[in-house]
Design brief:
Number of strands: 0
Strand content: under 5%
CATH class: Mainly Alpha
Largest sheet: none
CATH architecture: Up-down Bundle
Shape: elongated
Helix content: over 70%
Radius of gyration: 22 Å
Order of helices and strands: HHHHHHH
Structural class: mainly alpha
Length: 201
């Protein structure tokens, strides 16, 4: 358990804290891309902190109240969703930077990125609160014995969660990175042909 805490929690917390401090402290690091990385580091930092509670569940018993269990589940789900949403925003940022480099600095500005990050976090919190509202309204209703911390969702809710939290983001990321790869290959070929012409001359 000590190794698990050190590797999964403390290391995650420490390394992400370094990223958070670096980007927050140095103004020159506060570029649109780094603001997205900051959001990702914040979500991973909180995941590392919340892993301590996960260890308590793995060990057998939830030591806190049923209400704390419900809140913990919602917070953990929201942080995970915001992390996935931030990865989608990072892929959009890279897509604009590589496919439309001349328009990047006019389209992608720090203020716009901050608004997108805030909306991402707000959507994640609202979405997961709605999914797990039954658990929050009646904490512990799905526990079969004292010391459990579980939740339950019906089939339709599970499918909806799978689509919104996994299938849609992964699809967007794959499509954008395939497009980026295509542009990168095209640019590499153009550079090769240009170098060949220069070498011949």
């Amino acid at each position: 358990m000590l190794i698990y805490i050190l590797l999964s929690s403390l290391l995650t917390v420490a390394l992400n804290l370094l990223v958070i401090i670096s980007i927050s402290h140095f103004k020159q690091l506060q570029t649109p891309t780094n603001l997205l990385l900051l959001s990702l580091a914040v979500s991973d930092f909180f995941v590392g902190l919340l892993m301590i509670f996960q260890i308590m569940i793995i060990d057998g018993c939830w030591l806190f109240s049923d209400l704390m269990c419900s809140l913990w589940l919602i917070v953990l789900a929201s942080i995970t969703s915001s992390s996935i949403g931030t990865m989608v925003l990072i892929s959009v940022d890279r897509y604009v930077a590589i496919c439309y480099p001349l328009h990047y600095f006019t389209k992608v500005k720090p203020k716009r990125v901050q608004v997108c990050v805030c909306l991402c976090w707000m959507f994640a919190a609202l979405f997961n609160s709605l999914l797990l509202k039954n658990n929050l309204q009646q904490p512990g209703r799905y526990n079969s014995c004292i010391g459990e911390c579980v939740f339950d969702m019906n089939y339709i809710t599970n499918v909806f969660d799978l689509i919104v939290s996994f299938i849609f983001p992964i699809t967007v990321i794959i499509i954008l990175y395939i497009r980026i790869f295509g542009v990168a290959v095209y640019q590499a070929r153009a550079m090769r042909s240009h170098i060949a012409v220069v070498t011949t001359k």
